[in-house]
Amino acid sequence: MAEIDARLREDVHQLGELLGSCIRDQRGAAFLDKIERIRKGAKAARRGSAEGARQLTATLDGLGEDELLPVARAFNQFLNLANIAEQYHRIRRRRPDEPVLFEARVLPELLARLKADGHGADSLARQIGRLDIELVLTAHPTEVARRTLIQKYDAIADQLAAQDHNDLLPGERERVRERLQRLIAEAWHTEEIRRVRPTPVDEAKWGFAVIEHSLWCAVPNFLRGVDSALHAATGLHLPLDAAPVRFASWMGGDRDGNPNVTAAVTREVLLLARWMAADLYLRDVDQLAAELSMQEASPALRAQAGDSPEPYRTVLKRLRERLRATRAWAEAALHGELAPPSAVLQDNRELREPLELCFQSLHDCGMGVIANGPLLDCLRRVATFGLFLVRLDIRQDAARHAAALSEITDYLGLGRYADWSEDDRIAFLLRELDNRRPLLPADFRASAETAEVLATCREVAAAPAASLGSYVISMAGSPSDVLAVQLLLKEAGLRRPMRVVPLFETLADLDNAGPAIDRLLGLPGYRARLHGPQEVMIGYSDSAKDAGTTAAAWAQYRAQETLVDICRRHDVELLLFHGRGGTVGRGGGPAHAAILSQPPGSVAGRFRTTEQGEMIRFKFGLPDIAEQNLNLYLAAVLEATLLPPPAPEPAWRDLMDRLAAEGVAAYRAVVREHPQFVPYFRQATPEQELGRLPLGSRPAKRREGGVESLRAIPWIFAWTQTRLMLPAWLGWETALNNAIERGEGERLEQMREQWPFFRTRIDMLEMVLAKADGAIARLYDERLVDAGLRPLGDHLRDLLSQAIRAVLKLTCQSRLLSHSPETLESITVRDTYLDPLHLLQAELLARSRQRENEAGGALEQALLVSVAGIAAGLRNTG
Ligand code: PGA
């Protein structure tokens, strides 16, 4: 077993002790003693000690009702503290003898490889300058931690950094310890579960806070690193306006299945973004105005500043006034419609030019060293965030647009759009798109739902182009879905091009994505409206929920290949937008490997992906970690663009076809066809109870019904809690074992060695199987499931064992993750804290189901805390 780094171990130990002392202060030594007995029992039980297991269950059974909540909280908080220590460990100061982290060397090493491969200096610099990576922050409800706690966690990480200096004086060390103790006490005495659902505006504010507290600082640092790697490799610098990575957002724009996101909310969020951006730049410009007291200036700057003795300050103060005016207007406009006065900044150019003028003048006058400080950082921020901070996407369900059009055609006496064939719909939409007269008569009275769709389109039309990203259509299937949105936007008065993006997210829709886009691109007039690349979104998690991960992964891959091909034929650039979550079942996985496993040609300098829920915190919540992740993105996209993986061999494709066909059949045989599956799912997992966790602003379901009506997130979330992790692996056991039985084992090994796509799939599968735990899942069955349904549970656990055996065989190991001992160790150390939470959760579920009417009490609170704790321990929610 790999040793966990002694420093990490020490940090975890220290945080645990400090938590213990808070618990003792509040609840006394006897209570702390119980926690210790539970922990030690769990640890011994994991090592196979029957005595340990007895001690664990006996102590848990002996808990009084009023002790359930604090016990759940203790283990939950401990797991959160362990996460903080582990996260901090990724960025702690490295000793000179330690190897440089992969994230820090990935770009210099790649540039060296590319040079050796014959890429010239100019072309490399151009490529990096042109990269177009967009990370789209979404409010997907998978962040269980409250914002107020996240702030305390960040502060704890700061103190770990502060104490990580050997030369601290004893008094200084003591003060750090006191601060840590205080922060942990604050966290312990703060409720970890939100009482009320956040509103979409709260969610958007949370996203802005990540920018304010982390990305605002990380982005210029990251670009400094890119610039110096580029310079070292090529002697060239990154252009001032280069923004290889940008940010977009769905927070306040994604209304798919979320009635709380209205046109008014979207408007408010757009204004808040402007307010926030102006406020952040004001802080920068204030600092610059204080620092740039220099006198000598270029003629160009002089022409602006007149004969002012401090020309830089003069120009910057003017900019400061405009930023103040912008901020004041955004604030006032939040309280009512208000035309912006002329001082309000409307165009990125107005922000950039004065700063660039100062920058150039400093360089011209021999003060490059001053120019390249905070002023350069500010210019980098302007290039990345601009005046609007993020580009807001809109997302709405295809069915809502079709319903709106049906209402309109019905009113006009044309029949019902929803009943028309695809050809008829297209003919109608094309005609109307070309028509100069409006489609909607003035006296048209829409239903509330259609009025909302139309109001949203009007907000889009009214907003500045640079403040918006794409209009994404969920559950899209055909060309008319795209044209329908174009027509509704036209009706709302949109006169500029906007990217209207179909999101393909079922197996059938992914299979049909190529033909649909082919037809769309060939429709008369469509290309003229396109302007820029054709964007297509691939939905990872809903397709996996529909078909299982084996078939979904292959369908996602093939759809991308076909789209690359079709767009090439039409001579249109393609931008693929990857909609994936954090967990494997939702297409998650390490970004670097994921990008390098995309089909060749699909990452041609462009890449758009969602960053969701808790992953935003894990990947971008602390500036140093954010910098590492931005490096990974940039290096992977550059590599996939310039050194794309080879196309798979025909024999690999054939085998993948078989795996997918058998995978989906095996998956659906359970999830769709087994008559007991839905009742089993409801009893064995906390699915119903999860809906009560006020995680996000949107409801857990699109409509009433069984598994099909459940969104992908609660579906995955429920199986994660019981550790069966079913959606992430079900189907692979059959697919892999059949192939092995057919004698195709060697080919599978070859695919794993030579085909990044397949390798990444198997790596992810292995990881999720290592987190799965059949014995824990059985505990839930024993406590919660009717006797008649239990055989199904046994069957599923048997399938889990088969999946594990197949992966072990394929990877030639006797234990999962033995080639990656650090990951394994990080998973197994958490079991000591997770096991008691699982036991408690099963018990709490049983009790709360018996007393259905008592929502909101301590029991329910303890249950929700156990959910949050397990999610924290597995570092993934849904
Ligand atoms: P959606 O996302 O339900 O918002 O389409 C699914 C997911 O990200 O898992």
Automatic annotation (TrEMBL):
InterPro entries the UniProt entry points to: PEP_COase, PEP_COase_bac/pln-type, PEP_COase_Lys_AS, PEPCASE_His_AS, Pyrv/PenolPyrv_kinase-like_dom
Cofactor(s) essential for the protein: Mg(2+)
Pfam families the UniProt entry points to: PEPcase
Keywords annotated in UniProt: Carbon dioxide fixation, Lyase, Magnesium, Pyruvate
Keyword rRNA-binding on entry: no
Any GO CC annotation of this UniProt entry: cytosol
Gene Ontology MF: a single term: magnesium ion binding
EC number in record: 4.1.1.31
Active site positions: H140, K545
GO biological process: carbon fixation; oxaloacetate metabolic process; tricarboxylic acid cycle
Listed SUPFAM superfamilies: Phosphoenolpyruvate/pyruvate domain
Reaction catalysed by this enzyme: oxaloacetate + phosphate = phosphoenolpyruvate + hydrogencarbonate
PROSITE patterns on file: PEPCASE_1, PEPCASE_2
Function as written in the Swiss-Prot or TrEMBL entry: Forms oxaloacetate, a four-carbon dicarboxylic acid source for the tricarboxylic acid cycle.
HAMAP family, per the entry: PEPcase_type1 (MF_00595)
Quaternary structure, from the entry: Homotetramer.
Family: Belongs to the PEPCase type 1 family.
Protein name: Phosphoenolpyruvate carboxylase
Recorded name of the encoding gene: ppc
